[in-house]
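Q: I'm writing up a methods section and want to include an example of the input and output format. Could you take the sequence below and give the corresponding predicted structure tokens, formatted cleanly so I can copy it straight into the document?
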Amino acid sequence: MYIRDSEQKKLKMVTLTLELDWTYEHFLTYILFVVASADLSVDHDELIEIKTILTTEGISEEEYSKIKDEVLSKLALQSTLRQKETFIKSNKDYFLDCEEKKEQIVSSIEDVIAADLSVDENEFITYRTIKAILLG
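A: Here is the clean output for your methods example:
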């Protein structure tokens, strides 16, 4: 893709940059927050569910707080779903080395969506999009 101006180049760098200090848990947290925030808010039940998923993965509360802060800093740089989709597409092969991990993330997304007992249309669209990226 040819980039015509520095603003587009900066945008591309922000969305495609592989976070070299990130772990699988960072990527998982990133995806869960992308879906949870699709309705423009992350409610308390969704936060609890994300934290539960990560601590079930063996992450301590202190590590979770650090990972969450790093992920939210990355998300603050990405304002559109397309940027987030591009980031996921660009990095999924690095972080997800087997089908089992991909399916586990899809299951975790479903748990986060169900956490607040309502499924917003934007959350559902984001879920379907990410599921297609991960499993496609």
